[in-house]
């Protein structure tokens, strides 16, 4: 009797996780591609580009609030607790803030790489301006007015590129952090047996909100359709892939080396996400002086939305 009850309970848990895998994939794709289709259709039929840009900026602030709450309320506490539990199980007492050090390394890696890219861009622009100046000096007597126009024209693109040359890096790192985090969360759910239904429902809605926010951020950067579709598809597959691996490894116990590697990956991902979210997304959206109060309101709305979803885990 007891063995039959245990086997039926295990089978029910397997069915719930398998159903969550399918629903997670479909719901993430729906929440991700819906805002992209709506915004592109609105851009096609809208006659006022200013209003479209304002709506997109406010929606991007909502996404920033979602990412900020995910970072401060979900990613960082989960990482620190996992590090503490891992070293507690290993009976290791740390006299050095290792968790914070790994977090800082992830933060500084983004900072250093970004500054190196900007320095390379500045050197390239300086070389092109020097070449243009030499050409202008050669043609100054023949066409002085054209020389002045060419100098002013050559200064413009470099100034614009310096402000946008690292956008691709930040978009890639944002997608990388979200996919790694989604995979690890799916892995935890795939191997979980207690409070399974509540965790699956919470994760389903949470990943839907994150997929919506990611789609808004990608659309705000005006990326190509293939890049946006590929990024959303990759994020939508990450969590179901983690759940599938958790189902495949059900019953297997992770060794201390695996736990330490996972903690290190989570720490570096958390540091990268802090840099990309706080220094990149939030300040970029709140930098322009227009509609500050509305932007703050939408950012707080996104923060409150994630807070309400995470509160259901308690």
Total of helices: 9
Structural class designation: mainly alpha
Largest sheet: none
- Element order, helices and strands? HHHHHHHHH
Count of the separate structural domains:
1
Low-confidence stretches: 145-157, 159-163
The dominant shape is globular
* Count of β-strands: 0
How much β-strand is present in the residues?
under 5%
Rg over C-alpha atoms, rounded to the nearest angstrom: 24 Å
Could you describe the 3D structure shown?
The chain has 314 residues and is mostly helical. The chain has one domain (2-311). Helices cover 86% and strands 0% of the residues. The longest helix is centred in the first third of the chain and has 44 residues, at 2-45. The protein is globular and about 75 Å long. 30% of the residues are buried. Residues 145-157 and 159-163 have low confidence and may be disordered.
What's a quick, concise take on this entry?
The chain is an all-alpha fold. It has helices at 2-45, 49-89, 98-138, 144-164, 167-190, 196-220, 225-248, 256-286, 292-311.
Tell me the layout of helices and strands.
Blueprint: H1 2-45, H2 49-89, H3 98-138, H4 144-164, H5 167-190, H6 196-220, H7 225-248, H8 256-286, H9 292-311
Helix pairs in contact: 1-6, 1-7, 2-6, 2-8, 2-9, 3-4, 3-8, 5-6, 5-7, 5-8, 6-7
């Amino acid at each position: 009797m007891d063995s039959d009850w245990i086997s039926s309970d295990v089978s029910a848990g397997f069915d719930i996780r398998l159903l969550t895998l399918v629903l997670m994939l479909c719901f993430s794709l729906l929440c991700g591609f819906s805002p992209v289709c709506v915004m592109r259709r609105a851009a096609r039929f809208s006659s006022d580009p200013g209003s479209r840009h304002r709506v997109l900026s406010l929606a991007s602030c909502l996404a920033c609030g979602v990412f900020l709450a995910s970072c401060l309320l979900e990613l960082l506490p989960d990482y620190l607790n996992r590090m503490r539990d891992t070293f507690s199980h290993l009976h290791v007492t740390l006299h050095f803030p290792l968790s914070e050090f790994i977090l800082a390394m992830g933060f500084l890696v983004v900072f250093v790489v970004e500054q190196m890219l900007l320095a390379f861009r500045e050197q390239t622009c300086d070389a092109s301006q020097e070449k243009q100046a030499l050409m202008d000096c050669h043609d100054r007597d023949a066409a002085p007015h054209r020389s002045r126009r060419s100098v002013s024209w050559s200064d413009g693109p470099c100034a614009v590129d310096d402000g946008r040359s690292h956008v691709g890096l930040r978009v890639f790192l944002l997608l990388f952090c979200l996919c790694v985090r989604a995979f690890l969360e799916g892995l935890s759910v795939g191997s979980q047996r207690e409070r399974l239904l509540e965790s699956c429902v919470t994760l389903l809605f949470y990943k839907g909100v994150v997929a919506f926010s990611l789609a808004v951020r990608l659309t705000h950067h005006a990326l190509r359709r293939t890049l946006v579709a590929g990024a959303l598809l990759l994020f939508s597959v990450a969590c179901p892939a983690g759940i599938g691996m958790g189902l495949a490894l059900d019953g297997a116990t992770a060794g201390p080396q695996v736990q330490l590697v996972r903690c290190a990956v989570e720490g570096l991902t958390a540091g990268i996400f802090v840099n990309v979210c706080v220094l990149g997304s939030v300040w970029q959206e709140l930098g322009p002086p227009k509609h500050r109060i509305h932007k703050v309101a939408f950012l707080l709305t996104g923060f409150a939305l994630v807070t309400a979803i995470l509160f259901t885990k308690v």
